[in-house]
Amino acid sequence: xxxxxxxxxxxxxxxxxxxxxxxxxxxxxxxxxxxxxxxxxxxxxxxxxxxxxxxxxxxxxxxxxxxxxxxxxxxxxxxxxxxxxxxxxxxxxxxxxxxxxxxxxxxxxxxxxxxxxxxxxxxxxxxxxxxxxxxxxxxxxxxxxxxxxxxxxxxxxxxxxxxxxxxxxxxxxxxxxxxxxxxxxxxxxxxxxxxxxxxxxxxxxxxxxxxxxxxxxxxxxxxxxxxxxxxxxxxxxxxxxxxxxxxxxxxxxxxxxxxxxxxxxxxxxxxxxxxxxxxxxxxxxxxxxxxxxxxxxxxxxxxxxxxxxxxxxxxxxxxxxxxxxxxxxxxxxxxxxxxxxxxxxxxxxxxxxxxxxxxxxxxxxxxxxxxxxxxxxxxxxxxxxxxxxxxxxxxxxxxxxxxxxxxxxxxxxxx
Length: 415
Fold this sequence. Notes:
Elements lengths: L9 E2 L5 H4 L9 H8 L7 H4 L14 H16 L4 E2 L5 E8 L2 E11 H5 L3 E2 L6 H14 L1 E2 L3 E5 L3 H13 L4 E4 L5 E7 L2 H12 L4 E5 L1 H17 L11 E8 L5 E2 L1 E5 L7 H8 L3 E7 L10 E6 L2 E7 L14 H10 L14 E5 L5 H8 L5 E4 L5 H10 L9 E2 L10 E2 L2
Parallel strand pairs: 5-10, 7-11
Antiparallel strand pairs: 1-2, 3-4, 3-9, 4-11, 6-20, 7-10, 8-9, 12-19, 13-17, 13-18, 14-16, 15-16, 15-18
Helix pairs in contact: 4-6, 6-9
C-alpha cells in the first residue's frame, strides 16, 4: 500500500518560474552552479548549492554553507519568489524530450514506506552524501528538490492526467536551457485528489528511479523528527517528503558508460587477447559503435572502435543481477583484467551518461586522459523493477534517467 499525500506547496510566481527552476544539485559542481546562476538572483541554486554565494575556497560541508541555504530560503519567501498554496494539492509535472512527453504526479511519499521497503531501491547510498543532504533538509526544514519515482502504469491515472492537461492551462510552461520542455499543472479538485491517492494506496510498491541519496536523507530526517517529538501523531508534514511519480511505461533509461585510465600494465595486444576469451571481438574502425542490443558493447581503444559480444556462459539470464551488461563488464573485464574491484571508490574509473554522446568517450581517450572506454546498452525498466523487487542492488552508475527534474517548481516544508 503506497502512500501519496497532497500538500501545500511553495511555488514561484509564473513570471519567474523559468529563472527560478534549476537543474538538480548533484548534476553540477560548484563552479558550474556559480556560472549557471550568475546574474540570476531567482535561481534555486542559491539554496541547493549555497556555496555559490560564498568564497570559492569554502569547505562545501562547513556549517557556513548550510546556514547560507537557510538564509537564502528565508529570503526567497520574504521576497515572494516562493509563495505557499493555501490548500493541499497534488500537481502534474510534464517533461518533453525529443518529441516525447512523460507526465508525473507530484505529491508527498511516506517516510514509513521508505523504512518498510514499500518504496523500493536499486542502488546503494553513501553515508557521507546522505549526511550532506540530511543537514540541508534539517536546516531548511524542507524538501527543496523532489525525488524521481516510478509506479506501475495505471489506465485511470492516465485518463485523469489527460483530462487535466487538456482542460487546464499550465501554471508553468517553458523550455529550459538544455532544450527540454517543462509544464506544470495544479490539481485542485478534491475528489480527483482523493481518487489518485486511493489508486496509489492499491500499489504494492513504488520505486526510486533517480535520487537515492535525497530519498534516504528525506526519510531519515523525517524519522529523526518522529523520534524527537513526544507528541508524535503520524500526520505531521515531516512524515512525508516530496516526490514526482512517473508511470513506468513512459520513462526512458539511457546508457551509462565507463572510462578507465590505464590497462593495468597490459599491452593493447595482451588486453585484446584476454578480452577475446569472454567476448567475440570485431574491429569496427573509426566509426562509433553504439550497442544495439543486450550483451553487446562498444569499446574504444587506441583510436579504434570495437564491437564486443559476450559469449554464452559469461552471463545468467535467469539472475536479475547476472543478466545486466554492467555485471558482465565488471566480472569479465573490469575486475579480472583491469583490477578495478570497487567502482564506487576507484580513482581509475569514470562514468559518462549517454546524454553526452559516445563521442565524449573517444574524445577523452584520444586526449590521453583515459586509456579505454566502454559503451553499454541501457538497462530496461523491467530490469530495474525486477532487481528492486528481488531486493538486489545494481552496481554503481548503472542507470541514467533523462530528462532530469527541474528543482524549484514546488517545494515541500516539513512543518
